[in-house]
Amino acid sequence: xxxxxxxxxxxxxxxxxxxxxxxxxxxxxxxxxxxxxxASVSTVDVDFLSMQRAYELAHDDYDAMPExxxxxxxxxxxxxxxxxxxxxxxxxxxxxxNQAEQAIMAKFGDLLGAPDQRFQDPNDDDAFAWxxxxxxxAHRLTRVDGGYRIDLSFLRGYELRDGAEALGSDAYFDDALxxxxxxxxxxxxxxxxxxxxxMAKYHFRCSAALAATIVDxxxxxxxxxxxxxxxxxxxxxxxxxxxxxxxxxxxLKTIGxxxxxxxxxxxxxxxxxxxxxxxxxGLDALYHDAERQARFETLPELVARNGTAHLPWAxxxxxxxxxxxxxxxxxxxxxxxxxxxxxxVLAWWRSFASRFGSPMTEIRTRTELARVVTIMMWVVTxxxxxxxxxxxxxxxxxxxxxxxPAGTQSVRAMWPSREKTMLNMLLVALTSPRGPKITQDFxxxxxxxxxxxxxxxxxxxxxxxxxxxxxxxxxxxYPLRVFEPQSIEISIST
Length: 494
Ligand SMILES: [Fe+2]
What we know:
The structure is a single chain. The chain has 494 residues and is α+β, with helices and mostly antiparallel strands. The protein has one domain (4-92, 214-487): Lipoxygenase-1, Domain 5 (Lipoxygenase-1, domain 5), CATH 1.20.245.10. 49% of the residues lie in helices and 6% in strands. It has helices at 4-19, 72-84, 97-108, 125-134, 197-236, 242-247, 254-264, 271-275, 280-293, 299-306, 312-335, 343-355, 366-387, 391-394, 411-414, 418-431, 449-474, and strands at residues 42-45, 56-59, 142-144, 147-151, 170-173, 179-185, 188-190. The protein has a 5-stranded antiparallel sheet with strand order 3-4-5-6-7, covered by helices on one side. A two-stranded antiparallel sheet has the order 1-2. Strand 5 and strand 6 form a beta hairpin. Helix 5 runs antiparallel to helix 12 (343-355) and helix 5 (197-236) crosses helix 13. 48% of the residues are buried. Bound molecules: fe (ii) ion.
């Protein structure tokens, strides 16, 4: 049965996006200038993200380009529709994956590049191993006795709409990353060769997409880290403060995209709610848990915790991390002693820490400051690039859905409906990287020649990192392109 509302809703959002964020030329860092004296930021409270404290979302960006704002009338109409029309999951089925891809390309083809990685059969074990170790969930792969594991069982605890299947299971792999079993698929352990093995893998990929999109992308990257950084930096530091100048390029377009997300993506009745099988109460609980459990940790800490430093994802990610860490350390040493004494820096950190969901300790030294600044820069650059679902995976219903109907008996029956496929592709198109890149010159923000030299050194280090990644890719069965520096945005702009 056709889902007329979902089609009309997708078309409305698509048209609005084409007239705004998707319609403009790609911006470069050099399109922006350093902020005017006194430039700060206002905030609006987001009720559903507020817990013991109000969640303050940054509002009105002095850096905004015309395409960054959706017109107030369109925002009001979209919010009214989302709240007024009940969330329903019915829809029509695709005849073939090819038919789906043709329909997707007809609507979104001009926004999509050539695919990075094509698999003959996205549901075979090689594709599954690639997905789990190199794609959006690779940061959750953890070393265990006899191999590796990704634990997504936590997703099982959230309230679902009638007719939806619960997501959340654990996947296990051997030392060579070949899949061994999936635990928790419909209460059972499923192994390669079992009748339900294909369905268990599909179900796991759906869980992975949900965890990456909601927990690691929307909440951790956009709302906990980037929004807190924007608000604390613009409120607590003067426009000529060296720390404000350092972080300014890492905030381009962030306020606009977060406001757009708060209207069209994450609220009640918005895209995420309609794409997943969660009730609003279930989704709201997942948001709050994601915020509370967010770890403000370094990439080396994450990789050490996971025991995966030797794997391709970590090898490439560390390249970007190291370049950012060197940049932050070198830059801060130009302006600060090891013992921090500047009250505005301490106030900036307290403001950030009070906004981030989980508790954090005081910082007292420049080394500690460089650590937290590098985490922020990493989350809005390399991390954000990594956890955005690549459009390759959304081109076909064979990879994943955010919603699974309960009781399916075949992988084909688990595919998203036509209507949800198109809405999902719009979400992916909206989040595909098209903002200013980290490899572009941003030295206009720097206060003096030594700081501008730091930017040059960062770019030289990123270029060397890119060459090493390209070299490693020659020897890999599946090249990993997500950390190619020239494709990494400098800020959360999508
Ligand atoms: Fe994003």
